Amino acid sequence: MSESYKRNPNTNCSVCKKLIYRRPSQIKSGKVFCSLICRGISDRKEIPCSVCGKLILSGLNKKTCNRACANIQRTGIKYHLGSPRDKVKSQQALKIRLLKERGKKCERCDYDKYEILQVHHVNKNRNHNNLENLLLICPNCHYEEHLLEKSWLRKKIEKNVK
């Protein structure tokens, strides 16, 4: 490019203050930048760390700048001590109790593989764990108890027979 066509700088970059040339219409529109890097720096949104005040990117949903500040922020929070009531453990305990009291067989069909027996709630309320409401049954009997009454095949056959 020859020296006669070289434009003289007419403004400064909004970020790094480098002298640059921009058209007058670009200058009127607001901020002007010398490069995409400076534009990116200008568009960047930052928030202060809630502990130390250091600037962090706001788009990452972070509240603190690093692990040390996060630990400081969490001091004083009381978490659940011990293990909370675990539903799986309580169901296992129910099954073990029923196996000891009622034997290692299905209470309907006398199937004797106790490892796969399941606890069935007679009134279909899982929170009602009285021993009178519980049965120890095999998966086939359990399936019959819950799903056979809602079977699509039964409905179709009954419709065709009538």
Number of strand elements: 6
* Contiguous helical run count: 6
Q: Would you tell me the overall average pLDDT? A: 85
Find the structural class using helix and strand composition. Answer: alpha+beta
Protein name: HNH nuclease domain-containing protein
Pfam families: HNH
GO molecular function: endonuclease activity; nucleic acid binding; zinc ion binding
Organism: Candidatus Nomurabacteria bacterium RIFOXYC2_FULL_36_19
Please provide a written account of the structure.
This protein is α+β, with helices and mostly antiparallel strands. It folds into three domains: 1-34, no CATH class; 45-73, no CATH class; 87-161, His-Me finger endonuclease fold (3-Layer(aba) Sandwich). Helices cover 35% and strands 11% of the residues. The protein contains six helices and six strands; from the N terminus they run E-E-H-H-E-E-H-H-E-E-H-H. It has helices spanning 24-28, 36-43, 67-74, 87-102, 139-147, 152-161; strands spanning 11-12, 19-20, 46-48, 55-57, 118-121, 134-137. The strands form three sheets. The chain has a two-stranded antiparallel ribbon. A two-stranded antiparallel sheet has the order 3-4. The chain starts with 10 loop residues before the first strand and ends with a helix. The model has no long low-confidence stretch (mean pLDDT 85). GO terms for molecular function: endonuclease activity; nucleic acid binding; zinc ion binding.
